[in-house]
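F.,

This is the one I mentioned.
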């Protein structure tokens, strides 16, 4: 059985995970960006997966590679409500010298200022298409939120909007027949 991350789970990172992490990074001098070479989520952020055994099965967590890098450099995860942000504004970069913490609000404000967020949304525009298609496939909003590092209410809001639009388009009525 696979248990997927629910909010509030602290990932367990082993030495093996750490070694695996660094094989996916092109590390260079401190001033340059260290680019993540493996899987990326649509916005360009690196994606690192860790899994470990729990009594119910396997806990699997997807974590932003830049968050893992911050953890490895600082020995702890950012406190709740804090995002790991890039000074270099380069999402796949995991150079710890380029990372800093900001509140989620500040980060979203920064992203909105840079035009990376949809109108009045809490979901970066680059994620929206993929989130919509995941919702369309019936993926629970909590799973999507964890996958993209978003608050679940932001995904739910997108889901409600998609449903409202479907009704407006007559989609739902069609499906009911
Ligand atoms: Zn960088």
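My design for it:
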């Amino acid at each position: 059985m696979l248990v997927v991350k629910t909010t509030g789970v602290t990932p367990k990172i082993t030495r093996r995970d750490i070694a695996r992490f660094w094989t996916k990074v092109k590390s260079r001098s401190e001033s340059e960006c260290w680019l993540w070479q493996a899987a990326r989520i649509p916005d360009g952020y690196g994606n690192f997966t860790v899994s470990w055994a729990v009594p119910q099965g396997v806990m699997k967590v997807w974590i932003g590679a830049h968050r893992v890098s911050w953890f490895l450099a600082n020995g702890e995860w950012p406190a709740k409500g804090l995002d790991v942000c890039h000074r270099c504004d380069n999402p796949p970069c995991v150079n710890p010298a380029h990372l800093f913490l900001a509140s989620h609000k500040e980060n979203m404000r920064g992203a909105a200022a840079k035009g990376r967020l949809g109108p009045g949304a809490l979901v970066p525009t680059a994620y929206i298409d993929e989130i919509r298609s995941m919702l369309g496939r019936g993926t629970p909003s909590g799973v999507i939120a964890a996958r993209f590092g978003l608050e679940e209410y932001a995904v739910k809001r997108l889901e409600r909007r998609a449903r409202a639009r479907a009704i407006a388009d007559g989609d739902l009525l069609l499906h009911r027949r």
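The chain is about 40% helix and 20% strand.

Talk soon.
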